[in-house]
Design goal:
Largest sheet of chain A: none
Strand order of the largest sheet of chain B: 6-7-8-3-9-10
Radius of gyration of chain B: 18 Å
Number of domains of chain A: 1
Helix content of chain A: 55-70%
Mean pLDDT of chain A: 84
Radius of gyration of chain A: 23 Å
Low-confidence stretches of chain B: none
Distance between the termini of chain A: 74 Å
Helix content of chain B: 25-40%
Structural class of chain A: mainly alpha
CATH superfamily of the largest domain in chain B: P-loop containing nucleotide triphosphate hydrolases
Mean pLDDT of chain B: 90
CATH architecture of the largest domain in chain B: 3-Layer(aba) Sandwich
Oligomer: heterodimer
Structural class of chain B: alpha/beta
Number of helices of chain B: 9
Order of helices and strands of chain A: HHHHHHHHHHHHHH
Strand content of chain B: 25-35%
Amino acid sequence: MTAAPASEERTAPARTLPKPELGTIVRGAVMVALLAVAIGPLPHVVGSDWITTFTSVAIYAVAALGFGILYGRVGMISLGQIALLTIGCWVGARIAYATSLPFPILLIAAGGITCVIGTLVGLPALRLSGLYLALITLMFAGATTIVLAVTDFPNGGGGFKGRSGTGALTTSTPPVRRPSWANADVAYYRYTVIVCALLFLLVLAHVAAKPGRAWASIRESEPAALAAGVNITLYKLWAFALASFITGVAGCLLAAQVGVPRAITFQTQDSLTLAAATLIGGIYSLWGAIVAGIFQQLVPFLFQAQWGLNSNLVLILFGVGLLQVLLTAPGGLSQQLPKDLGRLWRLAAGRVRSLAAGERPAP
Amino acid sequence: MIEVQSLIVRFAGVTPIDDVSVDFPGGTCGLIGPNGAGKTTFFNVLSGFVRPARGAIRVFGDDLLAMADFRRARWGLRRTFQTEQAIEGLSIFDNVAMIHEHSGAKRSSRRADVLSALEFVGLDISPKAKVGGLSARERRLVELARAVVGKPRVVLLDEPAAGLPAAETERMAGIIQKIPDTFGALVILVDHDMGLVSSCCQTTAVLDFGKLIASGPTPEVMRDVHVMRAYLGTEEKL
């Protein structure tokens, strides 16, 4: 006995998908407004050191977004984001010294090469998970730091190899070039914000489509994803490739921002603080990556340059923030803040209504 | 039709499936047995999570064991799990659509197929609602919609009514009964609720300690002395 043929009488229901929810529209509008403020009036009201910091915020937000894809979307704890940022920075700097390629091509090349390296690093992820994967990627970050030290990165000289006559960084080391029309700090800040916004859109396009649903399925349960027909190997490597690509592009942006990148900029422990900052910002949300960029770059700037406080206080703040997130707000600030503001609004509205009705407000 | 021949599964000295040969002829077939009988292991073999030590499984003439695990969904194999596996962070629509987009079905028919599957299971909630906010019954229905979307050929249901009240189980039975005629799929139902199995399944196979102890038309199997012994035990004089 074989199975009966499918019924021909099935008809598509008249029901249709509802229009986009109000929350989605509001979030989109807020994002566009923030972007307009960031690239429009903001550079005119703050000083040059703030502009440099905001440029770094945008770059590190992309690095945090890479961590968010891997951990928040797929459930793979990867602590090699700063190493990938370093590789993007290194590749961007070397290609910039060796060629006269247009800057956008430089960005894509740095992203592409970092993507290949990051995907290779991701291969163990097919067999490992949790703490083991975290350790492997942290070792990768440590190894990158050692390689930087051993090779005197960026080592000054021209061409791909870049060995200078003295074998080390010299005062004559040329800065990594910027786009010709965005050479000044303010113009380069705007350029960086726009490129980073495009990278966020690239990630959003993935998250809202087939890869995003496959990642969500893998994170929920690998057996269930397999039963749903998801090629787990492909989609895990895809996540590593995307996270590495955007982080590589961000690294190249960083190379041109600082001009002459130095090995000391990239410390292994920064991968840990970036992970902590992303958890505090919100691992499941694209907004969380922006908050993480602010925590990673703006908060230290405020503490040190603006308020003259000990920079180690930032680490304490991260520790307290992480504890708070783990205990009370697993979605991070990006999810908790709107909820708290909503509660505050309802509380205030309730008081106003009580007063308007002539009642005594509740104590 | 599913033909299982001499299937053996071994886990480090344990043999959860021990030389089982059985046919599932079509329609809705039951697979029952006490806890630890090997029912879920059998589903895991069909899904590709477990590689058998020996044996062959042919499904509608195709060698299932020769297929890569993730390709079996594209071939038309669907399953639900004992524990809820609908993805909390996605909407109802996306939960069902993600099965469709890996099933090989045409993209142009996705929306209609997904909405049709949701209508089939009787889930009358906005498809945009997040699964995380649904009740246990509604999540079960989402899982059932995931199992029938995109031209399924074999649907494996692992305790689909577990934890549901009697009235909901009855409604679930009504939905399961309609799957073969509506989608042309062969259904294998694993459940401990004998009422559900009796009402849905034309044929039933019974496993006990990894061995097949009975198979055939459901009413006859339910009266089988070996089956009653497996479920109720035997009188033992002290």
